[in-house]
Amino acid sequence: MNRPITERVAATTRPDDRAVVTELHELHGARLFDFARHQGLGDQQAADAVQEAMLRLWRELQRGTRIDNPLAWAYRTTYRLAMEQHRWRRALARVMPRLAPAHAAYAGPEASDAVAVWSMVDGLPPRQRQVLYLHYAADLAFDDVASVIGISPSAARTHASRALATLRAALAGEDPR
Q: Both 84 and 161 in a single domain?
């Protein structure tokens, strides 16, 4: 007897797994989306990255994988998805001119794919920008920030300290007081 797909999925889904993913998305989905946007993804790409991160989290939980900090796991996965998207776009930009007819000029990625221009924080080196965003905007501890971007906690603190010093110096140069 064939049951509808929704019944089969519900029968294989553990309620606690579903609750973890649902609660994480409800409480932190908007911040994950903002994080993805700050990694240079457009609105649709950021929404897709968050959705994919939630799906991967759910799958891992279904496999029985023990995830001690689902929030940090979700940020790390979103970060990796964003970097994957950037690699794909760079590869596409290298290949497209070769595939285009000789008379057609390839203008590069569409404006919707362009990285949003950040203010002063956006001008910082990428690692410093990421550490500041994860620590202050996403409210992650330095240990979790380190886990998300694959560096040591002391390196995360160092990047944050250098970024803040750069911002202070820039602000002091703009404000004549």
A: no
What does the pLDDT read at residue 1?
46
For the chain, residues with pLDDT lower than 50 are: 1, 3-13, 100, 103-118, 175-177
| Structural domain range at position 145 | 117-177
Q: Which of 90, 116, 142 is the last residue of a domain?
A: 116
Within 10 angstroms of residue 108's Cβ, the number of other Cβ atoms is 13
pLDDT in tens, 28-73: 999 999 999 998 888 999 999 999 999 999 999 999 889 989 999 9
Distances in Å between the Cα of 96 and the Cα atoms of 8, 16, 21, 82, 105 are: 43, 46, 38, 21, 10
Whether 75 contacts 27, CB under 8 Å? no
Token look-up 């990694």 returns 39
Q: Give yes or no for a contact between 36 and 54, defined as CB atoms under 8 angstroms apart.
A: no
Q: Output the domain CATH number for residue 144.
A: 1.10.10.10
Which residue is associated with the tokens 């409210």? Answer: 139
Helix ranges, 3-69 (H) = 5-12, 15-38, 43-62
Residue 145 DSSP SS3: helix
Q: How far is CA 51 from CA 25, 48, 135, 166, in A?
A: 9, 5, 22, 34
Structurally, the chain folds into a number of domains equal to 2
Question: Do 41 and 123 fall within a single domain?
Answer: no
Which residue in this structure is represented by tokens 């300290």?
161
